[in-house]
Amino acid sequence: MSIRSEADLDNATVTKAYARWAPVYDLVFGAVFERGRHAAIAAAERIGGHILEVGVGTGISLPSYSKSCRLSGVDISGPMLRKAQERVAEFGLSNVEGLWVMDAEHLSFPDASFDVVVAQYVITTVPNPEATLDEFARVLKPGGEIVLVSRVGAEAGLRRSLEHWFQPAARKLGWRTEFSFERYARWAERTHGMRLVERRAMPPFGHFSLIRFGKEGGANSPEESVPAMRAAG
């Protein structure tokens, strides 16, 4: 059962917000999220093969992947995706097999299509995070990984209070400030064949974490899970 709250979003809100962000996204967020992007790419490349990037946005990550990886990308925002298509042409990214406007909760791919599903700064922006993770697991091959860079809300203290205060404004911008790690952990616990492999705090300020889930079976079976107690702040 998914965990919904009044802070949850809808696709219309998110699509409208990211249409506004498209012209300035790289300038505003490029450097801020750089460390998280590179960590996600490195994690995905350890598996390799066919990588799906959900929420590919302006395609800012695409040139950083090894040319040996086959890439596909989806995003709910047409304006964002047009920027990504321009980037693919500019850098001659022949390993990008396609870019599509698509809802992360309803991916138009067959089961077990990808070796890795990467979603950077996405899960806290979708209307139904648990259903979206279910969809990632569906299109992932056995032995593959879901690699997230995602916000993890504070459990207590001043930052928790500030996140609660800022949430109404954040919603209009297309994201949540309040999102506990418990939601990720509970999803993995209830989802057959999926397990938490890693949680690692990412800059800036540890507000975001690299989170990896492995799917059982296949030649690329993930390593043993590590304790997920490295808090994001």
Task: Describe this structure as you would to a colleague.
The chain is an alpha/beta fold. The protein has 7 helices and 7 strands; from the N terminus they run αααββαββαβααββ. The longest helix is centred in the C-terminal third of the chain and has 17 residues, at 157-173. It is globular.
Biggest sheet character: 7 strands, mixed
Q: What is the average per-residue confidence, as pLDDT, rounded to a whole number?
A: 79
What portion of the residues fall into strands of 2 or more residues?
15-25%
Number of helices: 7
- List low-pLDDT spans: 1-8, 158-166, 169-174, 224-233
Shape verdict: globular
Describe the strand arrangement of the main beta sheet, using strand numbers: 3-2-1-4-5-7-6
* Count of extended strands: 7
Listing every helix as H and every strand as E from the N terminus to the C terminus, the arrangement reads: HHHEEHEEHEHHEE
What kind of assembly state do the chains in view correspond to?
A: single chain
**Helicity level, as a percent range?**
25-40%
> Between the first and last Cα atoms, what is the distance in angstroms?
27 Å
The Rg value, from CA coordinates, equals 17 Å
Structural class given helices, strands, pairing? alpha/beta
